[in-house]
Amino acid sequence: MAILALKTTRRVRSTSLESDPALAKSKVSIFFGRLALIIVILITLFPIYWMFRTAFSNNRAMFGEPLNLLPVDFTFGPLRRVLGLSTTAEALAEGGSGASINFAQYMLNSILTCTLITVLQVTFSAMAAYAFALLNWKGRDKVFSIFLIALMVPGIFTLLPNFILVKDAGLLNTIVGIALPSMFMTPFAIFFLRQFFLGVNRSIIEAAVIDGANLWRIFRTIVVPLAWPQIITLAILQFIQYWNDYLWPFLIGQTEQSKLLTVGLGIFKSQTPQGNPDWAGLMAGALVSAVPIFILLLVFGRRIVGSIQSSGVK
After folding, report:
1. Cα 265 from Cα 269, distance rounded (Å)
2. Mean pLDDT per 10-residue run, the chain (314 residues)?
3. What is the Cα 186 distance to its own chain's centre?
4. What 8-state DSSP symbol labels residue 180?
């Protein structure tokens, strides 16, 4: 028994010695992989940090130290200028333009517009996805193929027809006019939810039909509760997309009551009688406008990733 135990010990030792090079190689690969990941993360986050740095810098002194990684002559002046809390003399003293925007009004307009688009679009897209995934009707697959083709059409091609439609409807310079082309449904939203609906257990639906439930009740009480995480994820993605939209709101909303925040920041940048843009004030406005998006991503970031993965696998 002692001889057998000694032979077994020698075999284990020789096996561990043979696997040491592979183990060391694996550790080196993991180290460089993590290092590359850290570098990519730093590169990705650096523009956000630079926005913070610029937002708390003195616009006049900032150009004297363009490579300084810390805020130059730290001040809250840019935030005060954007929020309309500083006087013209204070703004000019820090290198600002002396101009300000109606930040609160533009923020309210953006929230109302994006909320209107998100709620209606997700609601109608969920209904359409339910019809494409779980209902049997003639021409269903052909109609869905047309929706997929629409995904490849650049948005610039529909810009002019949508503008004419909104103008003829008398909805220029209104929140509804800005939201109208996107408030019903989009091919991406339908495709996103349809991929999840295809995985719904049909036996549950068949049992509901046997119990006498109609199509609307099945959708409302069975399908929507099962897909609630995906619906929330789609709502967040669409809200972020339209929160950052600029061209269409710029064309439709030209009054103070209809301008969105992205348009207001563009106007703030152009109001520069001294020649150089008020970059510190502009970055301060971008920072404040990004706060709702940061909060959404921090709270729902993991859910977004998980829902996208589950929607892409049948």
Report:
1. 6
2. 48 49 75 89 90 85 80 83 74 68 85 92 91 86 83 82 90 91 86 86 83 85 86 88 90 87 82 68 85 80 60 45
3. 16
4. G
